[in-house]
Amino acid sequence: MQFKTRGTCSSQISFEIEDGKLKNVRFSNGCSGNLQGISSLVEGMPAHEVITKLKGIDCQGRGTSCPDQLAGAIESVLKTQQAG
């Protein structure tokens, strides 16, 4: 899945959810080292746990952040899966 971000340095996030767990998280653009670190830390984590940990994180008063955008994208996918 690919999601365009809003209000962050990264422009896009791609990831997969397999058996309820996050896989292959990749950010396009943004702070490379930090985003590689986030991607590595959430790899294999349950999607709901990632949302709980990352939702609402703010970057420089923007009201969002790359981690927050990831949490929102995961929520969107899970809602779509539940509705389907």
Automatic annotation (TrEMBL):
Q: Which residues form a coiled coil?
A: none
Kindly report, in one word, the top-level EC class recorded for this enzyme: oxidoreductase
What Enzyme Commission number(s) apply to this enzyme?
1.17.4.1
UniProt keyword terms in alphabetical order: DNA synthesis, Nucleotide-binding
Reactions accelerated catalytically: a 2'-deoxyribonucleoside 5'-diphosphate + [thioredoxin]-disulfide + H2O = a ribonucleoside 5'-diphosphate + [thioredoxin]-dithiol
Pfam families found in the cross-reference section: TSCPD (PF12637)
Q: Which GO terms describe its biological process?
A: DNA biosynthetic process
* Positions of the TSCPD domain: 4-76
The GO molecular function terms of this record are: nucleotide binding; ribonucleoside-diphosphate reductase activity, thioredoxin disulfide as acceptor
InterPro entries named among the record's database cross-references:
CHP03905, TSCPD_dom
Give the UniProt family note: Belongs to the ribonucleoside diphosphate reductase class-2 family.
The record's NCBIfam families line, in alphabetical order, gives: TIGR03905_4_Cys (TIGR03905)
Annotated protein name in UniProt: ribonucleoside-diphosphate reductase
What organism is recorded for this protein?
Ruminiclostridium papyrosolvens C7
